[in-house]
């Protein structure tokens, strides 16, 4: 914890990202691959998690932008992080702009379902065909 905190305070974007994820309740099925023991040393605080993730994203961490987008879209912590579909879309766009493939996938899903933007299956299909080249 001390080393992660020092790295995050020193501006290490990956450390900020990990610290943000560690403030979320542990979920063995999430895509972040952070062990339970890492989560155990941090207080569950989705609001703090979102602030750390946004800070890392603004610094250029694509994974943090994607994770922040998921928090805004999920509705998992409605009293702390309200659903903000437009903000989720913007965070996915940020991740995609930084080259995060899953950011592009999330954008395609947003366009396909009209989440945060008007529904446009043509744009979703274009992203899947050109940027992701048909990858699921």
Fold and architecture overview:
The protein is an all-alpha fold and 136 residues long. Helix content is 64%, strand content 0%. It contains eight helices and no strands. The chain has helices at residues 2-9, 13-22, 36-40, 46-59, 62-74, 85-97, 101-113, 121-131. Helix 4 (46-59) runs antiparallel to helix 5 (62-74). The longest helix is centred in the middle third of the chain and has 14 residues, at 46-59. The mean pLDDT is 90.
Q: Roughly how much helix do the residues carry, as a percent range?
A: 55-70%
| Poorly predicted parts | none
* Average pLDDT over all residues: 90
| Assembly state (oligomeric) | single chain
Structural category is mainly alpha
Summarize this entry quickly:
With 136 residues, this protein is mainly α. It has helices spanning 2-9, 13-22, 36-40, 46-59, 62-74, 85-97, 101-113, 121-131.
Write the layout of secondary structure elements.
Blueprint: H1 2-9, H2 13-22, H3 36-40, H4 46-59, H5 62-74, H6 85-97, H7 101-113, H8 121-131
Features:
mainly alpha; 8 helices
């Amino acid at each position: 914890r001390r080393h992660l905190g020092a790295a995050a305070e020193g501006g290490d974007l990956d450390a900020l990202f990990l610290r943000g994820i560690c403030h979320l309740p542990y979920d063995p099925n999430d895509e972040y691959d952070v062990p339970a023991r890492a989560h155990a040393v941090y207080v569950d605080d989705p609001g703090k998690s979102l602030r750390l993730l946004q800070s890392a994203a603004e610094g250029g961490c694509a994974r943090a932008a994607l994770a922040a987008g998921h928090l805004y879209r999920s509705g998992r912590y409605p009293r702390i992080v309200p659903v903000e579909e437009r903000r989720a879309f913007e965070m996915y766009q940020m991740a995609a702009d930084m080259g995060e493939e899953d950011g592009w996938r999330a954008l395609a899903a947003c366009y396909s379902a009209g989440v945060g933007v008007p529904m446009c299956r043509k744009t979703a299909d274009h992203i899947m065909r050109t940027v992701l080249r048909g990858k699921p």
